[in-house]
């Protein structure tokens, strides 16, 4: 054998052995020695326990626990339309075990609603995956409000301008109400809450007349007859509330407002840990039980790659700027 050929063969053999010895822990099976994550994950949620987004976050966290073989601790940091939770995650730069479960508020809407954010929605985060899209539901208490349709509501609002109040617990609810006022030429008082559940409590307690509620919370109360749904905010009816018209169908043309949930890690996370986290979320969303559970509360499961989520943030930041302008909201 030619000595040079023999040397080349040995070199290829050594390279093959070296490649086989390279660490593969980041994609190892749960429970494998050195697999990531090797300790519990901490999932920050910017809304109160029991809110719609909290419900979805805990469902996803449970599936990730099963797949990753590590606990996922949900840390609720309600306030400032999700900014408090996002700020906490942004401060954990490089920590792949810290994740943010958030709606589009923190990464598309809030930059238009606040004069200054305590974080940069792009520079301070590493996108992981989208989780779901969802619409909102305009609800009232049938015992306290004698309207059964959006047109009846508009008539009542025009008859008594400024005397009706609606609760808002997140950015989408805030914009939803402002858009409604702008497109119908009506006047209502917006009452802000840290999250939607306390707004719903006040609605059923007679302290509010309306809430633009995330479907997660609205659906069970509507089905139980405790609240009346007047319309949904998106361009299509919800599978969970097929009898409830869209705003456009109910007589408010050009009204189309949907939100999304997604997962982010802090900036500076190792690429292999970001890829692993994205894989965990994507696999969790393939679980039929999780998908059905999300659909039952008005959310449509929708995973993505990190790059696709980054593009969604860029596109929706521009779109929400136009929506906030249409709603006539000034940054605070």
Task: Describe the 3D structure.
By secondary structure, the protein is α/β, with parallel strands linked by helices. It is built from eleven helices and ten strands. The chain has two domains: 164 residues, 3-Layer(aba) Sandwich (D-Maltodextrin-Binding Protein, domain 2); 98 residues, Periplasmic binding protein-like II (D-Maltodextrin-Binding Protein, domain 2, 3-Layer(aba) Sandwich). Strands 1, 2, 3, 4, 5, 6, 7, 8, 9 and 10 form a ten-stranded mixed β-sheet that branches. α6 packs parallel to α11. It is globular. The N terminus is likely disordered. It comes from Variovorax ureilyticus. It holds the Pfam family TctC. This is Tripartite tricarboxylate transporter substrate-binding protein. Keywords: Signal.
Give a quick precis of the structure:
This protein has 332 residues and is an alpha/beta fold. It has helices at residues 3-21, 52-68, 83-90, 104-113, 150-159, 171-184, 196-204, 215-223, 271-284, 288-296, 306-327; strands at residues 41-45, 72-76, 98-103, 125-140, 165-168, 189-192, 210-214, 228-232, 258-266, 299-301. It has eleven helices and ten strands.
Summed up, the domain count is 2
Question: What is the makeup of the main sheet?
Answer: 10 strands, mixed
Q: How helix-rich are the residues, as a percent range?
A: 40-55%
In sequence order, what are the helices and strands, one letter per element? HEHEHEHEHEHEHEHEEHHEH
Class per helix and strand makeup: alpha/beta
Describe the global form. Answer: globular
CATH class descriptor name of the largest domain: Alpha Beta
CATH architecture of the largest domain: 3-Layer(aba) Sandwich
Count, helices: 11
């Amino acid at each position: 054998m030619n000595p040079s050929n023999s040397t080349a063969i040995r070199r290829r053999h050594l390279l093959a052995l070296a490649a086989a010895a390279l660490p593969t822990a980041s994609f190892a099976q749960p429970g494998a020695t050195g697999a990531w994550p090797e300790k519990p994950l901490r999932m920050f949620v910017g809304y109160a326990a029991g809110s719609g987004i909290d419900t979805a976050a805990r469902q996803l966290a449970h599936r990730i626990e099963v797949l990753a073989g590590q606990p996922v601790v949900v840390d609720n940091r309600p306030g400032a339309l999700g900014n408090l939770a996002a700020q906490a995650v942004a401060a954990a730069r490089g920590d792949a075990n810290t994740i943010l479960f958030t709606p589009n508020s923190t990464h598309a809407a809030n930059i238009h609603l606040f004069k200054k954010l305590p974080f940069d929605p792009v520079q301070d985060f590493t996108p992981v995956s989208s989780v779901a899209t969802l619409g909102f539901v305009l609800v009232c208490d049938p015992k306290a409000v004698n309207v059964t349709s959006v047109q009846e509501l508009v008539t009542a609002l025009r008859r008594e301008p400024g005397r009706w109040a609606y609760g808002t617990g997140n950015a989408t609810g805030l914009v939803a109400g402002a858009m409604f006022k702008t497109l119908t030429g009506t006047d209502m008082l917006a009452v802000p809450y840290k999250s939607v559940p306390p707004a719903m409590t006040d609605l059923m307690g007679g302290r509010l007349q309306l809430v633009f509620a995330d479907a997660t919370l609205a659906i069970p109360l509507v089905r139980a007859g405790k609240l009346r749904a007047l319309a949904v905010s998106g361009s299509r009816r919800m599978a969970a509330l097929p009898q409830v018209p869209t705003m456009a169908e109910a007589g408010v043309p050009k009204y189309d407002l949907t939100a999304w949930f997604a997962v982010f890690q802090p900036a500076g996370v190792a690429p292999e840990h970001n890829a692993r986290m994205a894989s965990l979320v994507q696999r969790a969303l393939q679980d039929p039980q999780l998908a059905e559970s999300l659909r039952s509360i008005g959310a449509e499961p929708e995973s993505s790659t990190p790059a696709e989520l980054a593009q969604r943030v860029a596109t929706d930041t521009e779109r929400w700027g136009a929506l906030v302008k249409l709603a006539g909201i000034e940054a605070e």
